[in-house]
Structure prediction request, 229 residues.
Amino acid sequence: MRHRTILSVVFVALAGSIACGGEWTSLFNGKNLDGWSVHSGFADYRVEDGMIVGRAVDGSPNTFLCTAETYGDFVLEFDVLVDPNLNSGVQFRSLIAEEDATFTVDRDGKQVERKRPKDRVYGYQVEISSEAQKNSGNVYDEARRAKFLDDFTSRPDAETAFKDNQWNRYLVICKGNSIRTWINGVPCADFEDDVTPKGTIGLQVHGIPKDKFQPYEVRWRNLRLLKLD
Prediction:
């Protein structure tokens, strides 16, 4: 318990030091979803007790509730509570496909063709999964390179930072080509990448296979952002 308390103090101090001279903005008014729109699928999003609640819907692909505004360099904070059986994530510096597209990605030295339909959200996503997956806090390149952009195999603290069945606090800092994440005050991803310098923020409800479908839910609260000059 003392170890986690110290981590929390460091976490708050870090966010506070970055915020000096800036102003935090709430991304969610706590009442309705004004300023947000649903893309890529048809999962259900609602407001409940000052939280945004996303619920999996049978037959829906990955779905994203996205901000109307786009952001480049920033500090993003939020709390999340997710069913351990539901994969989720938060997009940042992400884009929304304006039309159908075909593109290629490198897979073990081979060029593989992929398709991206109109309205598909793609770009950086900070992972929200489960203790068993050990990849929460890593950054996945959704519907683009389709891979994690950092390596957690030598970071046991990062692999175990996320806790099932409780609220987890996330911190994401983007400055230039530097991307860093924390969960509950524990450093997770830390890498450089400059494919997308600016984009939307989106809350993901992952699609569920039909043979495993349940209306699992994910909840977000305390969504706030600090723009960095």
In short: The chain has one domain: 2-227. Residues 2-227 form a domain with the Jelly Rolls fold (CATH 2.60.120.560).
